[in-house]
Amino acid sequence: MSTQSRLFAFMLVGLMVLGLAALAPAQEKTYVNGIDANFPPFAFVDKNGNPDGFDVAVVNWIAKEKNFKVKHQPMDWDGIIPSLNAKKIDLVASGMSITEARRKEVNFTIPYWIITQVLVVKKDSDLTPETAMAEGRKIGAQRGTSEAKWIEENLIRKQGKKFELVYYDSAPLAVEDVVNGRIAAAAMDDAPAEDAIRKNKPVKIIGGFGMPEEEFGYAVRKEDEGLLKTLNEGLKQIMASPVWEELKAKYELK
After folding, report:
1. How far apart are CA 64 and CA 67, in angstroms?
2. What's the pTM value of the predicted model, to 2 decimals?
3. pLDDT digits (tens, 9 = 90+) for 82-102
4. Which of 69, 92, 129, 253 is buried most deeply by CB count within 10 Å?
């Protein structure tokens, strides 16, 4: 075979390889979603060890519609934004409040839920928000949450309240200590508080403690504009579809 023939053969093989590559299906991108392992009904790990919850289901739906894969990774909540920016995860879709402090570190999608912060006490308690936060009382809150920070800055530092703020790894753990009498009340979002009541925990909601309502959004790194656009498009699609109401009903969200 002449040199010219060999060159032609190599070119032909190369074109065939490129043609086959073009015909091969594009590999789906996989994103890792960092979740709170114990924040029902938005995110939790079920009895079989599988991630579940409203946000998990929503992101699964978006992933299917937008042709990407998603893995849900339980993480400590107080370190979840540092983990996002360190590229250990790619997004946070797990009942995260949009705050100005967080906006400095990450970008948020459009809001998809409005949340109110409340106090939870024993079901037979006669405490009010004022007496629950009186001097000498202990109030529980999940570390790393917007409500914990708001209480620290506004009630303890600015207003000089004398109650003790006790930190927990999750809202349900704080509820357990309300039940067993270790703390007088627990501050949390209304959705997990209502979830605890639905699960027959002997607790009740006695009202708020002055913190304004907040909105939930999904967080991504500042530079991940493409992912942010994809999530925003997906959220708009699912919120306009019957699936949104079906998921709200499934996870008993009002």
Report:
1. 5
2. 0.86
3. 999 999 999 999 999 999 999
4. 92
